[in-house]
Fold these 3 entries.
Entry 1:
Amino acid sequence: MTFDEFWLAYLGQHRKAGTRLCHYIGTSVGLVGGIGLAVWGAYLAAVVVAVSGYALALAGHFLIEGNKPYATKPLWGFYADLLMLKKSLTGELQAELQRLEPADAPVTQADVRH
């Protein structure tokens, strides 16, 4: 499997804007908070914040998307999460979502906003 194949499968599990928003918030809180607290020497708090951020990202799958997290390759998944955030911020995500198979649930403009 190439990263591009993984990326499309990953996007297919993140069609709903709310799921992606949970990932954006969870990843940002987990990374910034976790690293910031670790730098200050608050290691236990850093772990709690990082795990909480990850939990928020997971919750989006169960509560919003109605699927299970796509965790076949954890390092690629982490990179794909950061790439999804970057493409959302730069306006490139809509084009990526349009690459998904038409047989899957359609991607609407409301799903692309976040």
Entry 2:
Amino acid sequence: MEAFIRQSIDGTATPTNVGKRTVNQVNQKYNNKRLNIKTTVSYPIFAVRGDKHDTKVLEKGGIQKSTALHGVPSEKVAIEPRKTVGSVLNSNESFAIPSLKSAFKSISLLSLWYAGTVMYNVENKKALNMCPLPKTIAALQMLIGIPFFLTRWLVGIKPVPTIYTSNAGVQEENPKAGILESIKMKVRNGLCRLRNTINSHASLIKQSAMFSMLHLLSVTALGAGAISFVHIVKASEPLFVSAISLLTGSGSMSPVTFLTLLPILGGVSMASLKDLNFSPLALASTLASNVFASIRRIEAKKFFKQDLSKIGQNLDAANVSSLVTIFSSLILAPLSLLEISKWAPVYRSILYKYSGKGMLQLARHIVLSGFFYTLYNEVSFIALSQLAPVSHAVANTLKRIFLILTSSLLFKTKLTSAGLYGSATAISGAMLYSLSKHYYG
């Protein structure tokens, strides 16, 4: 590729071919090694654009120069092409292979996402049917993901995330101080470091608190009601995101986006009133989980809008998700102890209903549900980062439909015609909300 540069009256260089636009300042020498630019004698391969300057190009075999107004000459400059760039003639071939690879990658990603979501919900429901202890099961599912995150960091697949912590208020200890004074200083410095650590991790702690409650309430809802009913109600999450954003002043909404909330509200109401598997506990838990999910989403959005290089290192979406899951495990583990009085009766009930293999079967369901929970959360983060917003909105809608239909077939859940219409309306409204939010705000 060649670029013809002319020196104009005002001292700027003007590109005269359509192949490459290059701008050079006054008296700049064309010997920059980084750009691989050099002054050469060559033959034209592109037509020279005509404008107000008087440009003359010699025939092939001669030295090409151009003369601008007032006789200011400039030489022709050739920019050597990058060796990785292919010919224009085979552009169809060069773009065909990446598109096939991209399509295969997207299909594989969506398949893992859908399969992980379905398998988690199925294994989770089986575990809850055997052991109706949602706090215990939710905590175990979170804990199962921790070895995966730690292994990934130890092996080096992902860099270890780091959060910067200040030393504000920490005083240097005096070696000449007495024992009592030294103990007081250590306690004071320890409290200052604890305060600084909490302040530096404040956003992650908030996200973890919301995420732990979201997961606990979701597990409670799935134990109390049908999977299909719970996920129909979950489609109303945009209502809560919009309401909380408007109340806290952290977001705005266009009139078009507001109108998309109406089919969500109407569809969820229709499905809830006419559903044969209606459960007040499942409805209340799902709506409450939507509140925590909305707050967590808003907090995460605020976190990623910051300059993360000032907060820590290696804080990408996957690592932040891992940290939030670990912190959530620390919150849910103590909450599971609230069900400690029920452990023994449930254990005896499992042995009575399922004989000696009952505990092994329960353990398998809990481990698999925890594994698939970690898998589909990881894949959803990858999908969110690699798919376009519109594609992600459509894929998320199809995932919910696929999950509702699959769970209804596996657990033989009956859906009324009103329930089907309501779920279709709510899910369609959720997709329209995502699309409208992307295009109109």
Entry 3:
Amino acid sequence: MPIDLTGENRDVTRAVEVIRALLGDAHITPRTATSFAEDALGVLEAQHTVIKIETTPATATAIGLAVARLVAEHDAESGPASHTDPPSWISVDLGGAPDRIPGDAAFAFRAGTLSGVPVVLRCETEYRETLSVGVVTRSDDVAAGEAVRDRIRTAAEELNPLKGRALAAAFQGGLAFRAFELTGDRADVVVPDRVWAEIDLSVRAVTTHAEQLRRLGFRAARGVLLCGPPGVGKTAVSRAVAAELVGDFTVIVVGAAAVGTGLASVYAAAVELGRCVVILDDVDLAVRRRGDGDDSALASLLDALDGVDQSAEVLTIATTNDPRSLDGAATRATRFDSVVEVGYPSREALIGILGRRTVGLGLTGDDVAVIVDSLPPETSGADVGALVRRVVLANTGTGLDAFLAEVRRRGWLAAVPVGQYL
């Protein structure tokens, strides 16, 4: 006949387990999440208080790491967090050695370890893999539970593996981050000096001059909108700036598909992660003028930009191929402090770009100038890169004649056929 140990204290259940092991054929009711907490705290569930620790996409992993550290430090006993399910752990890739955080598990800490009173930490993975953590104490020990909550929050701030990294933001029913290696060097980006001047002005607002601006009553948060035709270096500029700041700043890259979907949560995460650069790629693909289709993406962008904590050190760099398609409300000065046009490169700039791209291919300076003079109007830096790539792949040599032949073919200028396929 099964033995129901619900409500019994830990000493009783341990004694039964020992007897069961000695007899070999005794049976006890499986431990439930409720009985595990009751055993650990020594009182029935009606006398428990749960203090929730709020987590977000920016903090959930850090909270999990903080809990895992405490479990290891105090050799906490593990048990079910829900029903009779066994404790589970989730592997996390933090860009270095693999680590793990609790999935669905509860951990019992004896009095005198994590706190002066017994405490249970209950971790559950909720909707869309969002970690939920509760500090369970006896109802008379709420103050001690709140102290444990605060301790975990503080540890999580120090442990947060997302801080200082480059993150790609995606929305699949909720915000999620993927860390990646960010590359870029302004020495490799050929744009007019005025572009860098505006960028550097905004960078100073969130770095060297942030505190001075706050003292004068100005906001530290800045926004720069880079506009111009495709391929002229807008993305390269944003990545180069981000590469200079990553480490001291967290960089969040938001693609066009994600710009109009829950952008407010990105900026909430940016504030939680401290100093941050938010890059919004191709905002014109998601945000149009009012009345030109779905206005929800525009509203999302405006709400997000308006909601940034004015004292936060958050730099937004947005790019667009078509600034005319953006609603005026999105580009006014209180949302983007600078609107910088990045046009097609000049002849001198093209010579510089082609010279960098062809190092080691045997071209002279005069050869580079001849090739540039043969290029069609409105050639972008991306076009030059595509030209060099095609010449190399053609495997017919990399001399002046090979480049001029490829220029005549215009093969790098992708053209969509006109008409219909029958």
